[in-house]
Amino acid sequence: MVDISAFLDKVEKPARYTGGEWGSIIKDPASVDVRFAFCFPDTYEVGMSHLGMKILYGLLNARSDTYCERIFAPWVDMEQLMRQNGVPLFSNETHSSAGDFDILGFTLQYEMSYTNIVNMLDLAGIAAFSENREGVFVCAGGPCAFNPEPIADLIDFFVIGEGEEVIGEVIDAYKTWKKSGEPRRAFLERIARLDGVYVPQFYEVSYNGDGTLASFTPNNENAKRKITKRIVHDLNKAYYPTEFIVPYIDIVHDRIMLELFRGCIRGCRFCQAGIIYRPVRERSRDRLLALANALIKHTGYEEISLTSLSSSDYTMLGELCGGLLDVTEKQNINLALPSLRIDNFSLELMEKIQKVRKSGLTFAPEAGTQRMRDVLNKNITEEDITKSTRLAFENGYSGVKLYFMTGLPTETDEDVLGIASLATLVADQYFAVPREQRAKGLSITVSTSCFVPKPHTPFQWAAQDSVTELMRKQKLLQGAIRQRAVKYNWHEASVSYLEGVFARGDRRLAKVLVAAQKSGCKFDSWHDFYSFERWLGVFAECGADPDFYTVRHRSYDELLPWEHIDSGVSKQFMVSENERAMRGETTPNCRENCSGCGAASFGGGVCVD
Ligand code: SF4
To answer: Which CATH class is domain 8-228?
Structure first.
C-alpha cells in the first residue's frame, strides 16, 4: 500500500485520491483470486461521470472471487509529488500500487486521452510496450477500441464492444490460467479464442510503399481472422448498478444516469456510436422505474438523467416520465433529457420533464443547410427547427444551444454561412412571439466542432479538412454571426486534427505516443496542457506524417487498419451510405424502414420490432 497522506494538503482536490466515498467497495485484496483495476485516463471528476465504469465496477465487485478498484490519472500537482517521492500510480480504494493488480483495464473514450495511458503506465513502473511487459496484464475497451491499432503495441488485449458478459469470461480464463502455472502467452492464447477479444501480438502487419496497409495476418492458431464485437442482447436481464458511488467533490455529471437503451435508429453518417452500438435494444419501463427507485434510495441524488444516444426516441418515454414524476416530484428530484432531437421536441414532454427545474434547451442540427443535413442523413428540416424553437420561446424558454460541425464532406462556404442564417432564423422565432408572452433575454449559443472522420462509419474514407481550412471556415462564420443575442464558440481545429490522426491511425503511431509522453504531452484534452507545436515536433522526430492519416482520401479498396474489427455493420452498407451522401440522398430510420445494415445478424432489438 502506498502512503499519500503527506501529499493531501499540498494538492488540489485531495478527495480525488482518498477513496472511502459512500458506495465505494472495500474488500480484503488477499481474499480474492483476481484483482482488477478500472483505469480512467483522465481526472477523477471526468472518470467518475463515466457510466461504463459504474457498470463494470459493480458487476466485477458483485463476484466474490474478484476485487475491482478504481485508478484515475493523477493531476499534475499530485504527479509531481509522486515522481519526486518515488510513489507509483495507486488505486483509490486501497491505495495499492498499480503493479499489484492482475489486470489493469483502460477505457478508451477519446483519442486525446492516449498520452495519459502512456503516462499512467510510466507512473506505475509498467513497461509501455506489451512485448517488454511482465506481471500485470493491460487491457482496454470502449468506443475507440474499434480502431485499436494506434495503441496496439501498448495493450496486451482489447475487449471489442459491450463488456458486461465478456469481462466475466476473461476473469474465469484468468483464474484457470493463474492456477495452471503456464507462461504469460498461454493466458493470451486462451482469451484470444473468446468472441470480442483481440490480442494484437497474434497478428502481423505489413505496409505498401505508399504507407498504406498491405496485409494483416494472424500468426497464432488461436487468433481469429475477424474480431466480432460483443453486445448485450437483453438489457432487462443484464446487470445494472442499483448503487452508485457518491463522490465527496463535484464531478462532471453528478447525478443518477438511467440508461434507457443502446444503439440508435437514426443512422447519421458521421456518427460512430450510431453504428458500433447497433442494433437498438431498449430497457422496459418497469425495469427503469425499479432501477430509478433503487438509485434514488441509495444515492440521495437530486437529478436523474435519462441517457442514451437519442433519448427522445425511447418508445415508452411519455409513460416512463409519467412513472418517474410520481416519485421525483414529491422528492424535488429533477429529470434531465440530454439528447433531445429537435424534430422530437414536444412541449408536453418538456413541461413534464422540467417541472422541478427549468434549464436551457440544446439541439444539434449539425449543419446549416438542408443540403448538408441530407448529406449527413440528419433527417431534420428547417421547419422542424423553427417549429420547435418557436414552441419553446412561446412557452417561457429564452436560452437555446445549437450544435453544428464544420469540415464536413462536400461542405461549401454556403453551408458554413448557412449556420449563421439558421441562428438568425431561430432568433426570428423569438421575436415573433409577442413581447408580453416571451421570457426576457434571448440567448442563442452556436457551437461548432470540427468533423473528424471515424472508423466504422460511412465517412471513414473521407479526407479531413486541414487545420488551416478549418480555421478559415471558423473565421468566415465568426464574421457572419453579427446578432448580439447569438454567441459563437468553436473547437480548436488542431486538437480535432490530432484526434483524426489517432482515430484512423495504424500501429506505427504507438512509438509516436510514447515519444510524445516523454516530451511532456499529457492531458491533451485540457487546453492548459495541450501544445500542437510539441506534437508536430514529436511527429517529425519519429518520422511520421500526420497528414497521411487525416487529409488523405481513402479508396474503397484500401485495407484499413481497423478492418479486422467487425462492428456488425457491413462494408457494403457503409459504401452505399457514403454514395447516397455524395448524392445528397437520405435513408429512412430503422423504425421507418430497415436498410439492411447487417446488425440484424446480432438478433433482437429494433431489427425485429
Ligand atoms: S438491420 Fe435494419 S433495423 Fe437493424 S439496425 Fe440495421 S438498418 Fe436498422
So the answer is: alpha beta
